[in-house]
Design a protein that fits this description.
Length: 477
């Protein structure tokens, strides 16, 4: 079956609104992509001859959205090529054609999901596949995609240009030496790949391999970490190094955005217990809460934008975590209290316009109740776009409906794709732009907005807002 034209995809069925949405979309659809927060591996771009691998490497292995849907239907993750810590129980599938066939056999599961939309967009717009993927045509489509992936124009650097990406930011551990970024800066390639400082591995005292990460942080920062003060100096050194390598932001992930300011004696005692592997039950949580306040203080001093992702209970399924580790589709959203939890941080630093604190959540019940009022008051607070489970057409619409009346769009930051799957980037940005144009068209049709204002807002939501919020330098705009 041939896939129908998608010119009006995600637009209203109302003729007037559709015409307005199309007019807005035509003006922003070709704008460069600003990707200020991704989980793309920078090593993809180091060697100009690097390829993306097989169709399975491109579509399936980087994508936990696919894992979780197929696993929910009883398909073992080993069948998808994931290696477990106990592979004696189930044979791990090595044949990528068989993995692809399994994926195609169950592609119908993604109907009406945002993942299905991204996958269809990737297959059609990036690889020119004009038929719906199914059991019968799986191997033909595999051959078509595989043959294209072997071509120079489908290498990562070429796709970066083809996708019209202007800036792409990666996510890098605080103790990372940024070798890939150093190599990229020394090349003549004109792609702009910037690091992002992610300290969770050392600020979460219960993180796996914490002591080893502290040792590595000591080495790369040039600071021997033996107490809390030296730990802070090491982090500050690394932040400065990340800035020298082009970073403009940090990133922090927590289940609850709890913040607290401990006394020097209290925080030193906790850190010493961590160094001696003698943590008490509440140490890790209160240490992370204190460190969020410290990170806000550092951001005021060094200018790095602070991103805070909250509301995901990580590794909820112990069987999956024990066998496969993290990021395998077993994280579940939980309720979040931003207002009370952030008050210590915002009381101390929230009124300082030098701080930019971008808040993300997978608890969308907080949009109108907490996040929009916080962003609509504090000069430091901005709202990140719908994240993870709500990075979807309906999630985006709910976000705009919930926050704009209180915070406006200029206390939001536009869009970021937050993806590990490189070829999905254009699809995700296109979804955002279409939903925003549809939402703005509704406002125009009801005389809430004038068309000229909607034009400006579409441009801002698509392009200018992330540049401004993340303090990015571009050639135009």
């Amino acid at each position: 079956m041939i896939i129908p034209p998608a010119a009006d995809r995600l637009f209203s069925s109302d003729k007037k609104q559709k015409e307005i949405a199309n007019a807005l979309y035509r003006e922003v659809s070709g704008m460069p992509l600003i990707c200020p927060h991704t989980h793309i591996n920078p090593n993809l771009f180091v060697d100009p001859e690097t390829t993306l691998g097989s169709p399975v490497d491109v579509f399936i292995l980087p994508d936990h959205y696919i894992y979780r849907m197929l696993y929910s239907q009883g398909i073992p993750l080993e069948t998808l090529g994931l290696h477990s810590n106990n592979s004696n129980e189930i044979t791990v599938e090595q044949d990528h054609r068989k993995i692809w066939q399994c994926f195609a056999d169950h592609f119908y599961l993604f109907r009406a999901t945002p993942t299905g939309g991204w996958l269809t967009h990737e297959l059609g717009e990036v690889f020119g596949v004009t038929c719906k993927l199914n059991s019968d045509n799986a191997q033909d489509i595999y051959d078509k995609v595989a043959s294209q992936l072997a071509l120079a124009e489908f290498q990562p650097r070429a796709l970066y240009k083809h996708f019209n990406i202007e800036i792409l930011c990666t996510t890098d551990a605080a103790e990372d030496s940024l070798e890939a970024h150093k190599t990229l800066r020394a090349t003549e390639w004109d792609g702009k790949i910037l690091p992002t400082f992610r300290p969770d591995g050392v600020t979460n005292l219960e993180s796996e391999g914490w002591s080893k990460k502290i040792s590595t942080l000591s080495q790369v920062s040039g600071v021997f970490i033996h107490d809390f003060k030296s730990f802070i100096r090491a982090l500050e050194n690394q932040r400065e190094y990340f800035k020298q390598m082009g970073a403009t932001a940090t990133d922090h992930a927590v289940e609850q955005p709890t913040t607290v300011r401990l006394s020097p004696t209290e925080i030193e005692a906790i850190f010493k217990r961590a160094l001696h592997n003698n943590l008490q039950s509440a140490d890790a949580a209160v240490f992370t809460a204190h460190m969020l306040v410290e990170m806000a203080r550092m951001s005021i001093e060094d200018g790095l934008v602070m991103q805070l992702h909250a509301g995901a209970l990580r590794n909820y399924n112990p069987l999956i975590y024990q066998r496969f580790g993290s990021d395998c589709g077993a994280d579940i959203p939980v309720r979040v209290d931003f207002t009370r939890n952030l008050q210590p941080l915002l009381s101390e630093y929230g009124n300082d316009p030098r701080l930019t604190l971008i808040l993300f959540t997978v608890d969308d019940t907080t949009y109108s109740r907490e996040l929009a009022p916080l962003a609509g008051h504090f000069p430091s607070v901005r709202l990140g776009p719908p994240w993870w489970f709500y990075d979807s057409p309906n999630g985006m619409k709910r976000f705009l409906d919930s926050v704009v009346e209180t915070a406006g769009i200029y206390n939001t930051v536009g869009f970021n794709d937050d993806t590990r799957a490189f070829p999905s980037i254009p699809a995700r940005h296109d979804t955002w732009r279409r939903v925003c144009c549809c939402w703005l068209a509704d406002q125009v049709s009801r005389a809430v907005l004038e068309f000229e204002d909607a034009q400006d807002m579409a441009y801002d939501l698509s392009y200018r807002l992330p540049i401004s919020a993340y303090k990015l330098k571009v050639n135009h705009g």
